[in-house]
Structure formats: structure tokens, C-alpha cells
Amino acid sequence: MAILNCHNDCYSESTVDLFDKILKDRGPIGQHAKDSHGYFTFPKLEGDIGTRMVFRGKEKLIWSLNNYLGLANHPEVRKTDAAAAAEYGFASPMGARMMSGNSNLHEQLESELAEFESKEDAILLNYGYQGMVSAIDCLVDRHDVIVYDSESHACIIDGVRLHMGKRFVYPHNDIANCEKQLERATKIVEESGGSILLLTEGVFGMSGDMGKLKEIVALKKKFQFRLFVDDAHGFGTMGKTGAGTGEELGVQDEIDIYFGTFAKSMALIGGFIASSEQVVEYLRYNMRSQIFAKSNPMALVVGARKRLELLRTQPELKNNLWKIVHALQKGLKDAGFEIGKTQSPVTPVYLNGTVGEATNLIYDLRENDDIFCSAVIYPVVPKGIIILRLIPTAVHTLEDVNYTIQAFRKAYTRLKAGEYASDKIASF
Ligand SMILES: Cc1ncc(COP(=O)(O)O)c(C=O)c1O
After folding, report:
1. Positive or negative CA dihedral for 268, 269, 270, 271?
2. Distance, CA 406 to ligand 1 centroid (Å)?
3. What does CATH list as the number for 75-313?
4. Does residue 261 have its Cβ closer than 6 Å to ligand 1?
5. Which atom of ligand 1 is nearest to 231's Cα?
6. Is 201 in the pocket of ligand 1 (CB under 6 A)?
7. 205 lines ligand 1 (CB under 6 A)
8. CA dihedral for 208, 209, 214, 218, sign (positive or negative)
9. What fold characterizes domain 29-62+316-416?
10. pLDDT, tens digit, for every residue of 114-160?
């Protein structure tokens, strides 16, 4: 037991200093910082955002940015961003929207997003992650029950962690199990007088498969619940107009609350939630992340409006993206690679190997083939599995695809031959 205002030797021996604790246990990823910092973690990609960027002084072919539509460096976007920064700076408007930071342009962008998503209204979020956490937090109270997919993004998991009531998780896209969880949830809310919120992603960011929205929506006939979809990877990439996974699957009207981020297809920062007028008004007056934080800078709002305009009026961006997606995914499959169940641009390549082999393989691709892609290894995925994650974009070319597949074939042959198994991990 610690006694306050006392010299150190007053503390019991079982007391552990907070800093000693975190130095001992640096966290699941942090424990690898010494070996990976600057190369696998926190790498610095320099130059204009695009398919060619400089890593450690040398140009690389980049496959790890969610710049799906290639808008990051689109000439009209760059021009608009520069003009908006010159006109408004980054301070304006000051304060939270509710107090002093509102503007016509913020409201204009919200109406445009709502219209694009076929919803009555929308609310801007300063950050996607924070907005999701906060929206979940403000929608439910301890009488309510959350049902959610086990492979949901960290922002859903963390929103659920704030929830004071019951929560039930179903295995990824397992609809029979989802139904069971809804049954359990229904029993509880019948007693508590609460409601049920079902959370899933539209496109799952790691595996690239879509949430089974049609099947989930069909469960609304049996159970009373509201559906909240995080469509970070679907917004701009899926559906005829790019309105997302709901549009792709023909269930946009049945999504009660739709979330999109600006950080991927829009190549910006921030996000939005679109829903009915009443739900959006509720969020506007209850979401702590927006009420107690400065509003999105005007320059970003102007930049977002330009990106949305391009996303809506230049279908060739999405067409180019999908041309590259199809070529890459077909090429990988034809070459014998396992890419799982992806139905979206997200392209995981699943390999078997140790962490050491993954390290050597990625080092080989980066240093000898000048290909930069992200890798997911233990502890994020089980031991023995390596996922190379490729993100095709509208600005990649078919030559980029062919070159990459050849390099991957070579790396696969070396992996199978045990050439990456050396104890001597690549030094960088
Ligand atoms: C599925 C999903 N939801 C939410 C987010 C968070 O979005 P933001 O980067 O805008 O905070 C991400 C970003 O990685 C994501 O992949």
C-alpha cells in the first residue's frame, strides 16, 4: 500500500513504479522497437505521395498507402489545397463547432456528403478513429447491448471498450453466430429496456472481404437493432458511384449509421458520419470528440469538398483503381499466391514463415527489388503466418503490377527453398 507524501522507503515493496513497469513491458509491438524502428516501424517515405517515393535515400515502388483514387497528388487537389491554405491558414475557425468554430463551408460539406451517401444529414469528424469511438460511446448507455464482428478495426473495439453495458462478439462474418448473439442481446434488452447496436466494417481493412451486410440486414426482420457500418475502406472504392459497400451490396438504405474516413480514398484527414437528420442532430449535441475539440480547419474542409467533387465527377479514377486491382489480384493468384477472400482493393498475400523469414523476405523485396509494401507478422497474426499487404491505387500502372508479381515469385521461390531461414537477420 502506498502512503502519500512519504519518503520512498515508506512504500511497500509490492508497489511498482509506473515508469519501471512500462520499461519492462513495452507493449506487444513496442517490444520490437529496438530491432524494427525506422525500417519496419516508423519508416520515412519521402517525396510527393505516389507510386514512387524515396526510402532511405533510394526510390521505391510503393504499395502501402491507402491513396486508393490517387487523389493525394492530383493537380486540382494540390492547387485547391494551396489556395485554401493561403486564404484561410490552418487556424480558422477557432474553437469547437458548438461554441465558435462553425462555418457555412463545414455545413456545406456535410450536406454534400449526406447527399452522396443518400442520407438525410452528416456530421464531420476531426479524425476517423476518434469519431468512431466517440459515436459508439454517445449512442449507447448501460442498458443497451452491442453486437460486433470479431475482426473489427481498433476504433470499434475501443468504442466497445467504453461501453458500460453488455457486448457480444461474433466470429468474423459468421452470420449464424451473429444471429445467436442477437438472440442473447434481445433477451437482455427485453429485461433492461435498452436497445441493440450492431457494429461491423463495410470492407475489412486487413482481409479485404466485405462485411455480410445483406445477411445482417435480413436479420432485421427477426430482431430489432440498428446497424452502424465503418466503411473506411469502402468509401470511394466500392459501389457504382463510390458511395461504398452499402451501395455495392444494394443495402445502403438499411445502414442506419454510415461512417467514412477522409484518410483513405480522399487522401486527407478527418471523417464523417451520415444518417437520419435526427440521429445526426443527436450526434452533433452529444459526441464528446466533437463538442470538446477544435473543429476541422477550413483549409481541410475546402480540400475535402474538392476531393469529393473529383470522386463524384471523375469515375475514371475508380475505374483505373479497379483495373489495377483486378490485374494485381489475378496475377498473384495465377502465380500461386494465397490472397484469401478479398473482394476489395485491399490485397493481402498470405505466406507461411517465421518472423525471421518475414524479415529477410521484406528486406530482400525492399533492398534488391525496390518494392515497399507493409508486412503483418506475429503478434498481430498467429506465429508462422506472414501477411504482405498490398494496396493498389488508381495511379499504379500495369507495368508496376507485372514487375511486382515477378519479384514476388522470386521471393516465394527463395522462401520455399529456405533461403530466408538464416539466423542472420537482415541488418539495416
Ligand atoms: C476500418 C477503419 N476504421 C477507422 C479508421 C480510422 O480512420 P482515421 O485514420 O481517419 O482515424 C481506419 C484507419 O486506419 C480504418 O481502417
Report:
1. positive
2. 31
3. 3.40.640.10
4. yes
5. 1
6. yes
7. yes
8. negative
9. Aspartate Aminotransferase, domain 1 (3.90.1150)
10. 999 999 999 999 999 999 999 999 999 999 999 999 999 999 999 99
